[in-house]
Design goal:
207 residues; mainly alpha; 2 domains; 73% helix; phospholipid biosynthesis
């Protein structure tokens, strides 16, 4: 006589997976990026930005921070380390880093202020748009938005190098910054359109 099959334990009865702790590697990388921001600003502005050693150290700090931005999200998703803290701190760290770089370069007179203003208005404007429509849906990062981030990182990294008197470095930096500004504006307008369409769709009466 065979024993009757054992009924599987319902998922609800077995208990839900516990939420990941905020104390994890992904969040540590995000915090490291936040900590690097004031260090980066100090190195960039020290001695009026004219010391090659400080500029190289500032560039190194910027690159390390950008690299952590590349990996913390991947680690969080792959190893189930996504937390509310990470969702809030990660974009803040990103905008703090790039914003500090744009403002610092403009303070040193190496980047026109209108470029910095355009970029910062777009970045914080899109963030406000996301909060504006969050009740109706989430606006994920678009391919254009990801391209914008890459172009900004490359352009800022080139501008931070101390050898701007070398023509090929200077004009390569200018070319990447020009492309970054164009993509920044275009994607910003795209986000405005997406936000308006999302709100309109949410208010449309059901058939």
């Amino acid at each position: 006589m065979t024993n009757p099959p054992t009924n599987p334990v319902p998922r609800a009865a077995s208990g839900a997976l516990s939420a990941p702790s905020a104390w994890n590697v992904a969040n540590a990388l995000t915090v490291l990026r936040l900590v690097l921001v004031p260090l980066f600003v100090w190195l960039l502005l020290r001695d009026g930005g004219t010391d090659d050693g400080n500029r190289l150290l500032a560039t190194a700090a910027f690159v390390v921070a950008i690299v952590t931005d590349r990996f913390d999200g991947d680690i969080a998703r792959r190893w189930n380390m996504v937390t509310n803290f990470g969702k809030i701190a990660d974009p803040i760290a990103d905008k703090a880093l790039t914003g500090a770089a744009f403002i610092g370069l403009s303070i040193l007179g190496e980047l026109p202020w209108w470029v910095t203003v355009v970029v910062l208005v777009r970045e914080w404007g899109v963030t406000l748009l996301r909060f504006w429509v969050i009740r109706h849906g989430v606006m994920p990062a678009s391919r254009g938005g990801k391209l914008k981030t890459v172009l900004q990182a490359i352009a800022l990294g080139l501008y931070l190098l101390p050898w701007q008197s070398v023509a090929i470095i200077h004009w390569t930096a200018v070319a990447f910054m020009g492309a970054a500004v164009i993509v920044t504006i275009v994607t910003g307008l795209d986000y405005v359109g997406r936000a308006l369409r999302l709100r309109a769709a949410a208010k449309r009466p059901l058939p």
